């Protein structure tokens, strides 16, 4: 299992991405929560914005499909899709994830 950290514009966009990932069986479960981001744009201007963060539980083999879905459904030209390997997971959850993500 891997956990993906994905940012998107707002709750509506987050729900669209989450729905697409679940419908296409690319993810088993997605947690969503609001966040405030601070960054420097290409012109050097510091910006702030409210965003939605998705934590996506999936299999490593599905990461390329998830990246494609995020790019096609979301509005960001360069969305953050960062993976974290999960070293330990309970057997029941791992088995369930293997059944729902294909």
From TrEMBL:
User: What are the recorded GO MF terms, alphabetically?
Assistant: copper ion binding
InterPro entries attached to this UniProt entry = Ion_tolerance_CutA (IPR004323), N-reg_PII-like_a/b (IPR011322), N-reg_PII/ATP_PRibTrfase_C (IPR015867)
Q: Which domain of life is it from?
A: Bacteria
- PANTHER family on file: DIVALENT CATION TOLERANCE CUTA-RELATED (PTHR23419), FI09726P (PTHR23419:SF8)
Query: Sorted alphabetically, which Pfam families does this protein's record hold?
Result: CutA1
Q: Which GO terms describe its biological process?
A: response to metal ion
- Family, as annotated: Belongs to the CutA family.
- Identify the SUPFAM superfamilies for this entry: GlnB-like
Q: What is this protein called?
A: CutA1 divalent ion tolerance protein
